[in-house]
Amino acid sequence: MALPDALHAFRLQRLKSMGCNAIRLHHAVAPELLQACDRLGMLVMAENRLFNPAPEYVALLQNMVRRQRNHPSVFLWSLLNEEPLQGTATGYAIMARAASAVRALDDSRPITAGMNDGMFATRGAADVVDVLGFNYRQFNYDRVHAARPRTPMLSSEDTSAFQTRGAWFTDLDAHVVAEDDSLAADWGNTHRRAWQLIAERPFVAGGFVWTGFDYRGEPTPFEWPSVGAFFGIMDQCGFAKGAYWLRRALWIDDAPVLHLLPHWNWPGREGRPIKVMAFCNAMQMELWLNGRSLGKQAVDRAQMNQWQVAYAPGVLEAVAWRDGREVARTRAETTGAAVALRLTPDRPQLRGDGRDAQPVTLEAVDAQGRHVPDCNAMLTLQISGGRLLGVGNGDPNAHAADQGMQVALFNGLAQAIVQAGRGAGVLRLQARSAGVRDAVIEIARVAVPLPATVPIVAPVMVVESWRHTAAFAQPPAPDLSRRPNDNNSWSNTLPGTLETAPERAGYVLYRTRFTPWQGVQAHGGMLDLGRLSGPAQVFLDGRAVTQAAAGTPIKLALAPAAGARTLAVILQVAADQPFGFHDVVTVQYRNSP
């Protein structure tokens, strides 16, 4: 799927904001993503998708290395992912061949493999790599390190924990999982446990979490009607789950981190205990409810601090200290009902190049302008000065269309992705919903020079499959056609090459039937017949459209029309002189040069 360049940067920035400094490529990616990693300082583990010794697959691996080796962000080559042969002699041979092919092209980067088995085999892929990569199997860290103490190790894939953004109570029947890091796949671990197993072992270099974002499909631990993954640290829109704040507290040391979950809108639960989690990287913290202290705790960065709090509407507040000094303060407030919508762009302006795009956060607010986290209103959008590329809300159980002018808030949030028009101006996005005030934002569109481009292929369609008759004494009817099974009265021909001179002068009929590209069918185009060797009359779909003298270029406008077109040319030929089309016949878009 094509993705605007700016959205690659947006997703990388979201990862960087939680302390992430490396990503693993699970397949071939757009070069623009690697360019964004270079700019933003995001390290990349580039991975081979197909583990196969056949020459065509080795060639694909070599192409990957050639394509990515000049990107400074790429620091590690991964040559397999959970392959059944990884712990066999055959796997060793395939891995050795693949590693040799990579090192012949780039000997500056180490090689790893995403292995979920076979590390104790007598002969296997583990004997070839420079860095041992563990896909899960974290219980084997110590045993493998004891067996291979001089081989660096990292977690090439771990965690596989489940969360629904904005949910605090698990309901498996409804396919909802709390974002409190309480549920993980049988083969994985919670976020806290997965990182603890890495952080406690200095011989494990780090880990790659499955996954940074939710994605379409693989709705483990559920099946239909769930349609999206629950694995992400963030949802499909990039909105934070509890795992995001947890990872921030684990991974960020140079700035204070403090966040409370859940939100504090729980009507009907008054007096009942609710688990409260604080995600913090300080040394000590204190929790308050409506001005009453609920106690101080030493910060637990391994498990995160928790309280059981009897719910009462109001203000839940946390304060964090380091070395006796307050470094952070945050609060979760019970809000009023939603009274208005709010739109927040990711950036204050767009490049007016017709390509730049950015997400806009959609939410509802109460009378005090506070985000209402339990609002699930349906929004209708209207846009000018650009176009709406898509909408979403991060709900893995939603079946709503991703493209359209309506989107529902999910646990308080939704997203619209807008793309700029060309030139200076303003992109205007409006959101409406029943019972609340509309919201409008205007994003400046800055005029920029269009980037220089060279088409990968010429924007022209060559009209082929021509046949021509022998020379007639008089001009033939343009609708004369070849009878079925007649392979002798008509000759195949290719414009751009003249035919052998005829024995007598006369008139030759050329015919072809072609189907223009969809864009030409919809919007029209130009038909270029080039120069012909003699006077010619041209017929399109049975109608005479032009005539021209010998050597005169012929160009015709093609009106929009669906389906195939029939082209006929009656060409006057002279005895003993080559005849035909001097040039290739083409169709191009109307605005092509």
TrEMBL record:
PROSITE patterns: GLYCOSYL_HYDROL_F2_2 (PS00608). It comes from the Bacteria. Residues 13-144 form the Glycoside hydrolase family 2 catalytic domain. Keywords: Glycosidase, Hydrolase. The keyword Hydrolase applies. Residues 486-495 have a biased composition (Polar residues). GO terms for molecular function: hydrolase activity, hydrolyzing O-glycosyl compounds. Residues 341-441 form the Glycoside hydrolase family domain. Residues 271-328 form the DUF4982 domain. InterPro entries: DUF4982, GH, GH2_Domain-Containing, Glyco_hydro2_dom5, Glyco_hydro_2_AS, Glyco_hydro_2_cat, Ig-like_fold. Residues 474-497 are annotated as: Disordered. One of its GO terms (biological process) is carbohydrate metabolic process. PANTHER family: BETA-GALACTOSIDASE (PTHR42732), BETA-MANNOSIDASE (PTHR42732:SF1). Belongs to the glycosyl hydrolase 2 family. This is Beta-galactosidase.
